[in-house]
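Input/output pair, single chain:
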Amino acid sequence: MTKTPLLIYLHGLNSSSRSIKAQQTIRHIHRNKLDMDLWVPDLPSHPEQARRLMSDRIRREYGMRPVYIIGSSLGGYYGTWLMQRLIYLHPDIVTRLVLINPAVRPYELFRDYLGRQTNVYTGDEWELTEDHVNTLQSLETLWLDNVQDILLMVQEGDETLDYHKAVEKYANAQMIIQKGGSHSFEHYDDMLPTVFDFLAGKPILKG
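Output:
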């Protein structure tokens, strides 16, 4: 049995474990010698396959240690589902979630992008279908438990997602709302000390 926390980083659509924010997170952990295990999966393009991958991984935890989740864009949508799943399976363990410009109802947007897609990091091509959209909608989290253990980070300049939707959904969570920026969340690396303070249960400096 280990009490070393598990940190899960979930990337966005057509991204990968090689994304800039994922790599910045990994480097921050190594540079600061943080005592935690890290899982940064390459999420499958189909939501059902992504769900199975996440479910299989958390099933191995058996509720023995804290689980921290960082989710970017679509990864924030998945991360919200995963947090609720963990709370249901292991209500006694500490689960905290950091959301970075998260998708709130991505299935609504995806209907406008049906067809061929390309992963910008791997070059893999795949087809976005109605089945993807419907499965994604089935993963929507309609309620939030332990909302005090969620930190929402958004930038008003997000050109892909309307940050107001995230502010509305996570209204009772801790929030950092920055002017300007973009969907990629500019200067994310500057926010990493705040992110990890929150995950460790420390008071956060908002900015």
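Strands lie at 6-10, 37-39, 67-72, 95-100, 115-118, 125-128, 150-155, 174-178. The mean pLDDT is 94.
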